[in-house]
Design goal:
- This protein is an alpha/beta fold.
- It folds into 2 domains: about 35-90 and about 405-440, Roll (Urease, subunit C, domain 1); about 90-395, Metal-dependent hydrolases (TIM Barrel), CATH 3.20.20.
- It has 13 helices and 15 strands.
- It has helices at about 1-20, 115-130, 150-160, 200-215, 240-255, 265-275, 285-295, 310, 315-325, 325-350, 370-380, 385-390, 390-395; strands at about 35-45, 55-60, 65-70, 80-90, 90-95, 135-140, 165-170, 170-175, 220, 260, 280, 300, 415, 435, 440.
- Strands 3-2-1-4-13-14-15 form a 7-stranded mixed beta sheet, with no helix packed on it. A 5-stranded parallel beta sheet has the order 8-9-10-11-12. A 3-stranded parallel beta sheet has the order 5-6-7.
- Helix 6 runs parallel beside helix 7 (about 285-295).
- The longest helix has 22 residues, at about 325-350.
- The chain is globular and about 65 Å long.
- Residues about 1-30 have low confidence and may be disordered.
Amino acid sequence: MKRAALVVPVVALVAVLATNGESRSGPNATAPQATAVVLVAGNVWDGLADAPLGPMEILVQDGRIAGMGRKVERPAGARVVDLSKHTVTPGFIDCHVHVTMRPEDEGAVWALAPADKAVLGVQALRVLLDRGFTTVRDLCDMDFGGYTTVSLQRAVEKGLIAGPRMIVAAHLVSTSGGHGDARPLVAAQTPVAQNNLADGVDEIRRVVRTEVSRGSQWIKFGATGGFASPADDPAQVPYSQAEIDVLVSTARDLGIPCTPHAYGDEGIRRSVMAGVRSVEHGSLASLETLKLMEARGVYLVPTQIAVVRFARLIDDDAFWKAVNEPPHVRAKYRKHAKAILESARNVSNCGVKVALGSDFGTFPLEESNAAEFAELVANGLSIPRALRAGTSVAAELLMRDDIGILAVGKAADIVAMPGDPFKDITVTERVDFVMKGGVIAKGG
């Protein structure tokens, strides 16, 4: 009895966080819903076309799209949702998030227990779902002693908590002193154990194999330094070509794709030559390297609200006061600002496959990661290309042929927003209807 009394409050807390304070029951933390739903949309975009397709009805049954057309069958008992004043699109996909991170906790990361980080993750997943993101790829937890994001991914899959479906790279595989080495954040004499550090090919093989055995579906590694980390620079290249080759080939042999944290051009080039599937950030990539990525079919996840915006506003003292970054961060951005802005222009002028990623978790929770759509457009991408980046192209990157597109047979991941994103891309930040796997999670 005492044990049960201890468990109940924890379950209650998770339920409140997972449902955003709503009263719901059942293992999926969602209210019972009709077996068939008809969405009456004023405007539909399917994730592929260069323009909206106009008014349409969508029939959803058993978690999938069963019909699309000007009129669809309405089975007995079907629930009809009026979205006649909305644009309906595929559910959004964010290919670069950190659900257990918060910028205000970065310097105190070692003070947070895994349970603390799990609660942060539950909160973040609910926020992401409410914003219309029905799938996310989480690219490293700061739980360097455990696998919190893997546990969260399994909890979502089992319906224990509400949130987007998760695809997880548990940790950032890093050299000592590299972007994934958190020890510079604490005093030198403080003992710190990390399970993500790998120096040399033998350690790289061991860490990659451990990551996969523990549930990582992707391997992320530090191919360059970073802006936030205090002990390196974005242009530094900590891993040799031979080390990156071993890392990627070890993962490939286990059927796992790789992606590097990579700002500097040389680190990006080495990663592309090794056979990675995507590049994260890529903010200092030369036009030559971007064309190499295009030729090899490597996707770019540019996280522009987390990088390009900082370079563009490098001289805006009010902005930097508001973001409250340590002095070394602004100094690095000042050093590289010109090259970041030039690379962003080059991305818009070449054919590299761009998938949306926001770096959610590195900025305050109240800032919408959907602002990445508008940031991509502000930096030169066309609106159709930006929208595809967060839907069909993102699904391609993640090797998921069941999401990212509205078509008969696809998963019923569907969002709606008041307005037309082809006329005003910022309406993607005002999603007020969300369906994931045929279950209405918001609105309706």
